[in-house]
Every structure is written in structure tokens, then in C-alpha cells.
Amino acid sequence: MLRSMFSAISGLRAHQTKLDVTGNNIANVNTVGFKSSQTVFEDTLSQVIRNGSSPTAQSGGTNPAQVGLGVKVAGITTNFGQGSTQNTGRSTDFMISGDGFFVTSQGNETLFTRAGSFDYDGVGNLVTPDGAQLMGWMAQDGAVSSNGPIGPLTIPFGQVMAPEPSTRGTLTGNLSKDATAGTQAQSQMTMYDSLGGAHQITLAFTKTATPNEWSLAVSDENGAPLATTPSTASVTFDPATGVPSIGTFSFAPSAAMAPSWRDPATGLAASPDIDISTLRQFGGKTALTPDDVDGNAMGTLQSISLSNDGTIVGVYSNSIREPIGKLALATFANPSGLSKAGNTSYRVGDNSGQAVIGEAGSGGRGSLTAGALEMSNVDLAEEFTGLIVAQRGFQANSRVITSSDEILQDLVNLKR
């Protein structure tokens, strides 16, 4: 008689645990990056009333008679399925599509999370709402190497990008073969000196009376002519292919420009190159386009953007985009073995395996999306169904205890 009561008590405990897990899932239905859990039951030991026997020549075999002693919680597993996407528009909100965890540092402990809602602290570190630092690799000289150790990612707002002098430029397009003598066409290139000063370099073509020949003059923003090497007094185009006789030439900055226009490698006065090898003389309209002009003015960091491989790109006031760092992602052989650390974070568990840290989009790691968050993967319909099942299971086990108690009461009343 008492076996049924103790079995029912174990059922009450197991279903209470299921209710606890279900209640926690429902409570976190709107928690960013939360992963729901499921309760798995298994029966406990069974008491053997009669052993089984194997068949013989004179009699058949018998099965054992066993009475179970209740139920227990076999495990509480975590469902790491992908949660739904919520677009936020915030540049520091990141979402992992696929496997992987963000790596964070809290004190001396390394933690892992799927919640990608980050912000800046007072010194520009990317941090979680509870202050853990987001980890990755910082750029060195405009390049990011993921081969070194990871560290906190810091966005250096206000950082100044030094100016770079222009050393080359390309002019592409077409000079019409049908142009008459005296026809002019010109194009301007914005080039920068060593201090970041902008200069408008004008290339002016004038059709001469000689077939397939154009004169070329190079001048600065003040109209002062600039000397070229080799001389570009005239450019002749092949009448069959339209290819110019000059591929590349260099110009010498004017006396006013020269002091602030130096070659960064030698420190000597610069002689920027102009490539006109792709310029052609074909039939049709004349159209000149400057292209691939290097150099830049001074710039300051204004905002960031994130690429799918986790690279944080800085956007500077001079319109240049340059890598600042790259987020690190971690994967585990058994994510379900991770130990929950609170604040939607996990720590390495005894059965999770060690963290394998690398770049997004490689080694089985998912890609990253900026301006979006991964929401909880809790399915309310499933949770409410589980809630009903747990409630009915609890009620049924309660009924077993009540029925056993009534039978025991009848047994006690036999003496009356």
C-alpha cells in the first residue's frame, strides 16, 4: 500500500520540477537570446515480486513480476534552436544567425552569451547591460588578425586618422574621334597633400589640327600650369585601336604646393602619377571620369558598422571606412553541457567541451547581423500545452495519494 503513496510523491516532485521549468520558460518569453528548457522524466528502480524463469523441456518460461517505485527527473535539456529576429536599428545590437556564442569577460571570468544587446561604457568599450566586456580582436594599422589572443573591443570615438598624400590617380573615359580642331574637354581630380589639404588638379585636352592628336595641359586649382614627366604637350591615339601614346605620366606640384606635398617614403617633393592608359578615342560622345585616386584628408571617427564576418568598420568624417576590430565567436562540442551563469550567460561546463574561438562564418560559426537581436525561442503554444500536462500529472499523482490514504483508513477501521 505504501509503495503507491511513495511513487505518487515522486510523481508530485517530478511534475513540480516540470512546472518550475515551464514557468521559467514562460517568464523569459521576451528575454533577448534566451533558450528554452525541457524536462525529461525516467522511471526509478523497480521491486521484483517474482523472478522470471527460462523455458524448459517440461514447462514454459515465465516473465518477472515487477512493481515500479516511482519517477524521477532524468534531465533538463536546453533547446539551442534559432530564435526569431527583431530589428532594432541600433548599430551595437548584433544577432548570430546559426551556431556560436558571443565571448564576454566579467572580472576574471570568461562567459558566453547569445544576447547581442551591447552598448558603450565611459571609455568606449562594448559592454553587455550588466557590464561584461565584449571580446574580439582589435585592428593594427588598419588590419585585423584573428590569430592572436582576444581582448576587449573598444571603439575609439574621436580618434584622428592622419592624412595621406595622393600618389596616383586614373583618368578613364573617351575623347570623341569626331571632334573638330579646337574642341576642349577637361576633368578634375581631387588630390591631397601631406597635410591633408585638398587640391583640384585639372587635366585639359584640346583637339589639334593633326588627326588623332590632342594637346594636354595640367594645372592646379589656381590655374597655374604644372610640369609633367614625360612631357604631355600632345597625346596621340592609335587610329585603329584608340589607345593613347602615353600610359602614365607624373606632375610636379607648383612651388606653393611643394612644401606641403611630400613623398611619405622619401620625404622628398612628391610627383603624383596620372594613369591615362585606359583613356580611349572612339566614336561617340566625349566623357572623362577620374577614378582610383588615392590619398585622404584628416578624418575623425564618427560611427561604426558591422559586416557579416564580425568586422567592426569605422566610418570617418573624410568618408573613409577602416576596420577597427572584429568580434570573436565561440562554439562548443556540446552546448547543452554549458552551465548557466545568469544574465543570459553561460560558462564552460564539465560536459560542454572547451570553447573553440574564431571568426564568424568559419568553423561552423554563424554569421552576424547588425541592428537586430535574436529573441527568445520559447514557443508559448508548446509551453501552455506542457503546463496543462504538468498540471494534470500533478493532479493525478495527488489522487493516487488520496486513494491510498482512503484504503489505509479502511484498513484501520477493520478493528471497529
UniProtKB/TrEMBL annotation:
Protein's UniProt keywords contain DNA damage: no
Domain Flagellar hook protein FlgE/F/G-like D1, residue spans: 95-152
Domain Flagellar hook protein FlgE D2: 180-295
Main location class: other
Role description: A flexible structure which links the flagellar filament to the drive apparatus in the basal body.
PANTHER family to which the protein is assigned, alphabetical: FLAGELLAR HOOK PROTEIN FLGE (PTHR30435:SF1), FLAGELLAR PROTEIN (PTHR30435)
Name recorded for this polypeptide: Flagellar hook protein FlgE
